[in-house]
From TrEMBL, chain A:
Ranges where the ABC transmembrane type-1 domain occurs: 82-288
Matching SUPFAM superfamilies: MetI-like (SSF161098)
Name listed for the protein in its UniProt record: Putrescine transport system permease protein
Location in or out of the cell: Cell membrane
Keyword set, alphabetical order: Cell membrane, Membrane, Transmembrane, Transmembrane helix, Transport
Membrane-spanning intervals of the chain: 12-34, 77-104, 116-138, 168-191, 212-235, 267-288
Presence of keyword Cell inner membrane: no
Automatic annotation (TrEMBL), chain B:
Broad class of the protein's primary localization: membrane
Pfam family, one: BPD_transp_1
Domain named ABC transmembrane type-1: residues: 61-256
Cross-referenced InterPro entries: Bact_Polyamine_Transport, MetI-like, MetI-like_sf
Membrane-spanning residues: 7-31, 60-86, 98-124, 136-159, 180-200, 238-261
PROSITE patterns, per the entry: ABC_TM1
Species in which this protein is naturally found: Marinobacterium sediminicola
Family that this chain belongs to: Belongs to the binding-protein-dependent transport system permease family. CysTW subfamily.
Membrane topology field: Multi-pass membrane protein
Cell compartment(s), UniProt: Cell membrane
Name by which UniProt lists this protein: Putrescine transport system permease protein
Length: 300, 272
């Protein structure tokens, strides 16, 4: 910590530069989302009426318009999109944990010189293009795709399974893309697990599955929760996966927002949907911060 | 432990098969003669040829690479500053808000980042006249904002585990702090800066959603081209593109892995 005593002027700069960048380009934009969500849509460029209008020179008036939020409440489309997002995010978080936990466990228990390559293999697909990974699944899942060809070739099914444009395809896409975000934090907690605890339990006659339930699982909870939040929060607003793999009945907030913005050119309504999504994410985000802080304290 | 070994190996085999079968299928079918992606029509490299003749796709790719390089450089500078602030300075005004602002972009849905930045850019243009229109500049700003959060995480963990005695020795010997930073701190955290740069580069190169919101006419990035052609239907050219990307990424990871492995070996030798 000695460096800081020598660096008072640089210190302020080191803090101020990233702080102001993020305040300007991350925090401030949310205020504009709120502002535009309270304005009226018009056919112009930009397609909304400013809240603050000059009536006569010098006199300004503020016109606030709640009709966008009213529409969100009245039209059941938006409520079902919120529920749809919640459902997809919850189910795929659970699926990621069910698949990711055994994988993280197996990597953490593998010989030490195997761990780095195994982890690299988990991260490698994440470095290739996200869009292209989704696109690969289209080729596998569609009516005359690889999976159906394989199953029909083996004589297991007579007619192609309809997986593309169903919720199942969305779950496959989400789990495929978000699996590394679960495996990595889980691995980090499992590798720090004190194995002597398990040995002590075994010596005292505790069965392996009971050791897992009573020791391993509770001690890996920070990893479970961090992984869960890293999947749940972004999936709530996911657009590409439901758009390319889901069908017209896959209603999710991110997709609906995209449609309101790009297809209907309704910026105010898109903004109010963004505000709704933000509110829905505040609680999980606070939880994520809480678990991160606890993990930091545990590490320190 | 040995009794459970077969189970663990099976889990890993299934897990990695799930991760890699889609990628392998893309690579195999990129060499398919037939336009029908799922019918094998013999070996051919013609889709690679078509890819090289696809002008809009190539110019989009070039734009994306330039945006990604600029983004990665800016993100490394800003992310390193944020990491230094958070690791080296225990207490300062704005610490809590800085912590939240560098964590939130990691999980913030892209649609929100994209829309909110677009609204900011539109408002800024009407008030101060900058940025005039939207294009490469606005995309770089938007990408830097979320990519720097990833850089911060990577650099932060390196800084937190760094041995401070070298810095202290240099300071005690009378080196100026700025010199200590460039001669000692920076070389020590260099691997994390490179990792952060590559991560930011990939994130920027891969982004469809944020760029769609903040781009303007004439600034179409590679993911936008890929997205519209995927929406139109499966196209074998995309398979060829995917294979090239997977090849480059694998090469980069192998080189990085080799460098890390050598470094570790050298450290082990030094320790003995």
């Amino acid at each position: 910590m000695k460096l800081k005593q020598y660096l008072p002027p640089a210190r302020n700069l080191i803090i101020a530069v990233p702080w102001f960048w993020l305040a300007l380009f991350f925090l401030l934009p949310f205020l504009f989302v709120l502002k535009i969500s309270l304005s009226e849509p018009i056919l112009a460029q930009p397609p909304y009426l400013d809240l603050i209008r000059e009536i006569e020179d010098g006199f300004v008036t503020i016109v606030v318009n709640f009709s966008n939020y009213q529409l969100l409440l009245e039209d059941s489309l938006y409520l079902s999109a919120l529920l749809g997002s919640l459902k997809v995010a919850t189910v795929s978080t659970l699926l990621c944990l069910l698949i990711g936990y055994p994988m993280a466990y197996a990597i953490a228990r593998s010989p030490s010189h195997w761990r780095l390559p195994l982890l690299m293999l988990i991260i490698l697909p994440f470095w290739t293009s996200f869009l292209i990974r989704i696109y690969a699944w289209i080729g596998i899942l569609k009516g005359n795709g690889l999976l159906n060809n394989l199953l029909m070739g083996l004589g297991l099914i007579d007619s192609p399974l309809e997986i593309m444009h169903t919720p199942l395809a969305v779950y496959i896409g989400v789990v495929y893309n978000y699996l590394p975000f679960v495996v990595l934090p889980l691995y980090a907690t499992l590798i720090r697990l004190d194995l002597t605890l398990l040995e002590a339990a075994a010596d005292l006659g505790c069965r392996p599955w009971k050791q897992f339930l009573l020791i391993t699982l509770p001690l890996s909870m920070p990893g479970v929760l961090a992984g869960a939040m890293l999947v749940f929060i972004p999936v709530m607003g996911e657009f590409v996966i439901p758009d390319l793999l889901g069908g017209p009945d896959t209603l999710m907030l991110g997709k609906l927002m995209w449609i309101e913005f790009f297809n209907n050119k309704d910026w105010p309504l898109a903004s109010s949907l963004a505000a709704l999504l933000l509110v829905a994410l505040i609680l999980p985000f606070v939880l994520l911060r809480h678990f991160e802080r606890r993990a930091e304290e545990a590490a320190a | 432990m040995n009794r459970r070994l077969p189970l663990l190996i099976t889990i890993l085999l299934f897990g990695y098969a799930f991760l890699y079968i889609p990628i392998v299928s893309l690579i195999v079918y990129s060499f398919n003669e037939s336009r029908l992606v799922t019918v094998w029509g013999g070996f051919s490299t013609k889709w690679y040829g078509e890819l090289l003749n696809n002008g809009p796709l190539l110019s989009a790719a070039w734009l994306s690479v330039r945006i990604a390089a600029l983004t990665a450089t800016l993100a490394v500078i800003l992310g390193t500053l944020a990491a230094l602030a958070l690791v080296r300075f225990r207490r300062f005004r704005g610490r809590g808000s800085l912590e939240v602002m560098v964590t939130a972009p990691l999980v913030m849905p892209e649609v929100i980042i994209g829309l909110s930045l677009l609204l900011l850019f539109v408002a800024m243009e009407t008030v101060i006249g900058w940025p005039a229109g939207r294009g490469m500049t606005t995309i770089v700003i938007a990408h830097t904002t979320f990519a720097m959060a990833y850089v911060t995480v990577v650099v932060q963990s390196r800084l937190a585990h760094m041995d401070l005695s070298l810095e202290e020795a240099a300071l005690d010997l009378g080196a100026r702090p700025i010199k200590v930073f460039f001669a000692i701190t920076l070389p020590i955290i260099a691997p994390s800066l490179i990792a952060g740069w590559l991560l930011a580069f990939t994130l920027s190169l891969d982004d469809l959603v944020v760029a769609s919101f903040v781009s303007g006419p004439g600034s179409t990035t590679l993911p936008m081209v890929v997205y519209s052609s995927v929406r139109l239907g499966v196209s074998p050219e995309i398979n060829a593109l995917a294979t090239i990307i997977v090849g480059l990424v694998t090469l980069a990871v192998l080189i990085a892995g080799w460098v890390l492995w050598r470094q570790e070996k050298r450290n082990q030798l030094d320790a003995h």
